[in-house]
Amino acid sequence: MVISPSATSATPPSSTPVVTVDRLRKTYGATVAVEDVSLTVREGEVLGIIGPNGAGKTTTVECISGLRAPDSGEIRVFGLDPRRDRRRIREMVGVQLQEGAVPPNVRVGEAVELFASFYRSPAKTDELLHDVGLTDKRHEAYHRLSGGLKQRLSIALALVGNPRLAILDELTTGLDPQARRETWSFIEKVRARGVTVILVTHFMDEVERLCDRVVLVNGGKVVTTGTPAELAAREGGDVHIRFVPSGPLDDAILSAIPGVANVTHEGLHLVVTGSAAVPTPLLKVLADLGVEARDLQVRTGNLDDAFVRLTARRPPETVGKGNS
Predict the structure, then answer these.
(1) C-alpha distances in angstroms, 58 versus 43, 52, 225, 290, 322?
(2) Residues 252 and 186 in one domain
(3) What range defines the domain where residue 255 resides?
(4) Helix ranges (DSSP H) in 91-210
(5) φ, ψ for residue 32 (rounded to 5)?
(6) Alpha-carbon distance 199 to 110, whole Å?
(7) Are residues 57 and 193 in the same domain?
């Protein structure tokens, strides 16, 4: 699975659907894990599925991969039904689960070679271990690996079959910042080879770096979907303008500016919060008053803000703990 430098120039996703999910529902006894989820994954894209703990994300992707059978709804993966066509789908789909495990005494290279034996056209073990940064750990027993190295092995096992679709659940949990960035680069190269990716994550910086589109799930339902930029702009909230005034300034003057929602103090700094239209009239008012805005910082709403706002609107009261 050596990835050539030229592979890093990704082509745009096509409109061809690889996965379609229509009104998916899954319960565990009296607990509703997924209430009503519909989504589409396009060929060649990275689709992020985000949401709070217990939102139904992991259950959704487990149903897509055929690891769980839904109670109702329809799923198609490359036109196949994961319940009836699981053997055929396994050749095309690689899965890295949130909680996966390998027998403690199995060595890293042995695990990759074992999984490779399940496929007709697997990746080469040496090349794959190199790509995920595990070459030096080839002969290390699984139980001796750190959490981050176990995560890397889990990614390798998901990709060893050269899948057309990779489902990655909490891809970089347990990795240090450098390892996270290396993993992101690797996934970008995998996408550039034409592999479609479903990424379940809690990290908004990961979404912004990797995802073409995002589906936010809360309470077992899809709340919204769009590109990361669209969600940040639409749901990210107010603009925050932080500065140190060069002279005395009456808060009431700032509060009277159209669009200003709040004026607060953080030590020497003033923080003005309001709509996207606030910065221009604010600076004009300061200029008219002869007040300079020192250490000026303007922060617009981001994906983290959008996530908090959207998930706060409907608590996942119907979803049991642990069914993420």
Answers:
(1) 21, 11, 17, 56, 9
(2) no
(3) 238-300
(4) 108-116, 125-131, 147-159, 177-192, 204-210
(5) -90, 110
(6) 27
(7) yes
Indicate whether 54 and 183 sit together in one domain.
yes
> What value does the CA radius of gyration of the chain take, rounded to a whole number of Å?
24
Residue 71: left (phi > 0), alpha (psi -120 to 50), or beta? Answer: alpha
Q: Token match 């347990």: residue? A: 174
What are 318's two structure tokens?
């119907």
> Could you report the average pLDDT of every consecutive run of 10 residues in the chain (324 residues)?
43 79 96 96 96 93 94 96 91 83 91 93 92 93 89 90 94 84 88 93 93 96 93 82 94 94 93 89 95 92 86 54 46
Structure tokens given for 244: 């140190």
Same domain, 89 and 145: yes
Amino acid making up residue 283: L
Report DSSP state, residue 12.
P
CA distance 159 to 244: 52
The type of residue at 267 is: G
